[in-house]
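Lesson 9: reading folded outputs for more than one chain in a single document. The general rule is that every protein is listed as its sequence immediately followed by its structure tokens, and records are never interleaved. Here is the first one.
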Amino acid sequence: MIDIKHCPSCLDEGFCTYSPKAARTLFDGHKVSHQLDFDIDGLYNKPEIVEAMHRISVSGVQEKFPAVIERGIIRIASEDEQSTYILKPAPWDETLRERKQIPANENLTMQIASQVYGILTAANGLCFSPKCQMVYITKRFDVLPDRSKMLMEDFAAVIGRNEQDDGKEFKYSACYEDIAIAIRKFVSAWMVDMERFFELVVFNYIYANGDDHLKNFSLILRGEDYRLAPAYDLLNTNLHVRGDDFGLDGGLSPNIPMSDVYVQTGHPCRLDFERFGGCIGLVKPRVDRILDKYMQLPESAIKLVGRSFLNDKMKRYYFRIVNERIARFTRVSE
């Protein structure tokens, strides 16, 4: 049995299960056990579970399973019911470094985004198998209380990238300006969502999420208007694989000049993001307000890392990676 001293969702101190705050956010106020009653390893050889995974998974490194809550217990959704949660165990790909820490990494990074920077994110937490394996759980924001689904399209679909026309790596085949152009085209309140998108690009750079590709940004139909969907799939990928600064091959935009720092070091600095913000239609005071938040590692983020379910070695590595990104970001261009 794992020794829990912090809420396995919001990471608040002094809880051996989900805190009341987390229960409200993640489980609509219901009391839910953090303990699964099935073993993750047992999912390998069950055809119905593999089929369930195929119903919910998108191309990527992490397996996903549809889930529901029944009488305070988290279980895999059956074929004929609408899932309201997604479960993500540690990836089965054993070539990933410290793969069993990935659920804790994602929970931590999502909580930092939400609690420290005020980024709208999918509600999330951790649950644990009988063998103490960590499993990431996230609430589906595209499913309404009556179990009907809201229309949601990732940006690969929105801007017309697909495997048939663009190859197997199609979700990386773009730049972030392409997403911004689509936001301006399809979102009525585009200025509000453009700021949200811009901050998410900055956050992903600072927190080393090198998998922020087209399928990890989406539009969701709310009433009659499309809006940028809450952030999801945020994690420090550099803990597990050597990656690039950005998840899109085209980087920020080919239409802005690179800073001399970017040219000399191969890594962008604040000036590059300032230019990107202006390129996508944001006014300088709003760009500066966002960028100013990332000039140093906030104390609240440090506390969340310390209370996370990462092991001590990975906590140190997490700090080292983020501090290195901040040092790059704060370099002054000539």
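And here is the second record, again sequence then tokens.
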Amino acid sequence: MTNGKLITFEGIDGCGKSTQVQMLSDHLSSLGYSVVVVREPGGTDVGEAIRDILLSVELSPCPETELLLYLASRAQLTRQIIFPALNEGKVVIADRFADSSTVYQGYARGIGMETVKKLNAFATMNLVPSITFILDIPEEIAAERMKLKSKDRLEKEGTDFLKKAREGYLILAQEEPERFVVVNASRSPDVIFEEILLILKEKRVIQF
């Protein structure tokens, strides 16, 4: 049992996760919380090396290899960074975590969500976030937002892949409504952030 809180942000590429992660980190830090921000894949020397492989447009790993690489990065991040921070009572905010693999490799790639959930449990030592925000946005809007951005391998998958991933996230939200909170990410960042703070307060994840 840990004293800290793990707050994760999920959603398809272009939904605005990184912006909300930064806003929440800055806000909680201003209130005196000790905050650790992590991202997936990456967050450790091992994880960043794996990230370079996973996002390279020059490589084409099969879905199973892709999944195992994500799991390896996640296992390192969990043991090296997340658990030590939680044990020290810190708030860990993650830009993606295990649910990303359940959706992208389990659902969108077709490996199977239940299979990936079991492998995630092994990689994370059964760690479950205190709360997970799914920033939900239509795939067309997400694609439009990313038009001018230099895309990595996964971002080049196209609208159909984004649509499949979005479906996967909404399935997870239906399966675990007590943990997942679906937030309309089509709105302005400030409006989204105010809703996130309200939800954290209502669910008593963080004391304000």
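What the second record shows: The chain has a mean pLDDT of 94.
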